[in-house]
Description:
The protein is an alpha+beta fold. 18% of the residues lie in helices and 33% in strands. A hairpin with a 4-residue loop joins β24 (341-348) and β25 (353-359).
Amino acid sequence: MSIEPPKAKQIPSPRTFHGDTVTDQYAWLADSGDPDTIDYLKAENAYTDAATARLGPLRERIFEEIKARTQESDLSVPVRKGGWWHYARTVEGKQYAVHCRRAVRPGEVVPPIPADGQPLEGEEELLDGNELAAGHDFFSLGAFRTSPDQRWLAYSTDFAGHERFTLRIKDLATGATLPDEIPDTYAGCAWSLDGSTVFYTTVDDAWRPYRVWRHRIGTAAEADVMVFEEPDERFHVWVGLTRSESFLTIRSASVLTSEVWLLDAARPEGEFTVVAPRRQGVDYDVEHAPSVSGGQPPGPPEEGDHLLILHNDGAENFEIATAPLADPATWTPLVPRRADTRLLGVDAFADYTVVYFRRDGLTGLRILRKDGEHEVSFGEPVYQVGPGPNPEFGASRFRLSFTSLVTPASVYDCDMATGELTLLKRQPVLPSPAGVAYRPEDYEEHREWAVAADGTRVPISLVRRRGTPRDGSAPCLLYGYGSYELSRDPAFSIPVLSLLDRGFVYAIAHIRGGGEMGRSWYTDGKLLRKKNTFTDFIACARHLAEAGWTSADRLVARGGSAGGLLMGAVANMAPDAFAGIVAHVPFVDALNTILDPSLPLTVTEWEEWGDPLHDPEVYAYMKSYSPYENVTARAYPPIFVLTGLNDTRVSYHEPAKWMARLRATAGGGPFLLKTEMEAGHGGRSGRYDAWLEEALVLAWVIETATSGRTLLVE
């Protein structure tokens, strides 16, 4: 290596809370306007480039493997909305999707999908992401919504990664973009029934979406009317349109509590009314079920209509209730709560209701008919199934998605009367650069169970190529998250094939704090039980080694965001359990961040982590696990950290400070920090750029887990 690792300057900055004074030597890195901060980040990038230069050939080979196995010109399964099929296309050599539609033809159930990803005959391009992104290093769409009459398209763009979007309106009849331009909006928007009005949200100084605005098409943004404001800093606000298109919705929710407001979508200038006033700890959501049958399209709300309410009032794992429009706060159970089943969502159709749930660590779908019900079943040991886009209320077929660790992403239509499944498309996996075709039967997936320190059984999903030895010699990449009741369900990944074909085991630890095993799985991994998340992950790592799937000196851990906090915590708690650690946009300075209510998202996070500003017990508990607070003078495994300068969720300064403290305090390593100077929380935005970054990470993982040994791939 030709250059020495950067050494951050130290400027003492004292912090005192609850009688405890701590000196932070690297607090100055939080100032992105300080030239010294930018110079330090650039120096870290230069060091990382030099330290990983030897990986260049392997990185390029992995990139070519990802590229070769991906059908670069491809087409999503079209979704019917009214008289149009909507879909997206990717084009070989282009970074971003092209959004399209095509008129429905007589008798079409689904239009034929070209195997080579070419445009459908008669296609209309609605929006080309490549044209919008031209001249920019970053591009993201925050909203993409056609009006119910299909006349208008509302879309919003972000060119920096900071999740502040500019909303625009396109006339789909003429192809012209209207003069309407609304800056600094949040992601998402919703249309009135007649397409005359669009609703959107804006954020406060802490980047919290808290206001809903009404914009009439063809008027200046300065004339827009604020229709809702959420004063409680714990709550985020979203605006939407029910699937029936009968109601506009505003949902205001904290981590634990929510409240929904409705407005007749045919009366956009009316007043929103609350479904049920918020009560602390009661979380609910609403689906409109119009009183029509036989596949007739719904209209404005009528007296016989009712609401479906997914809620947790007296139901830890949630239940589904019905409520009349005239009295929406009176709930009558429809799908009762069950201790073994976490209800996740519900979609109402003219003649059917579809329930989305989780049981035994796996997702599932149940179809309710007037004459009974049935569950959609799949035959693999670990998998992920979920609802797809289903905008047509009168449909008799339900669009769903399915994937597993060996089955590429698959789109099905389910006949809701019979339960019959029709495969519409499976993600193509093309031959490797060496010409080797992908065959699912060449790989095997397993469900393992680790035992945590308190006796809790923790599920692990894993996959390997058949013939990979189970004698401790196989390298392994272990992924974890474990926060916000978000589940990391098994899913197929083309980049992971580049590991499996080199003899790796790939595993996912379904640890507490996530939602894999129900609501209690989440509550047992948050607040003053947060350490369960970390000890569960360590238990999973040790189990994989003890069971012969890998060994500690060949196991690399990976996680991002709150999963990056997990990475930092386990590095402190059990550095001997890992050969290396990859942390993406890691939340590693958790205590300092949650102590500062002026920072983005801090107050809204208190119900997830606790409030250390006002509660000394929470302060002491968070201080005992926050990664930055607990770096010690011991040997750490190599750590590779990736972040984005414009990240508004986990600021770049958290991993930068962590890296500086690791360098100054810890032994072992090396420690690498790569900062994308034109990106946010999601990293590089273009697909080829993202593949290059993933190829770098996987090259580092391979070298780290194999001590530089050369692994051959077919």
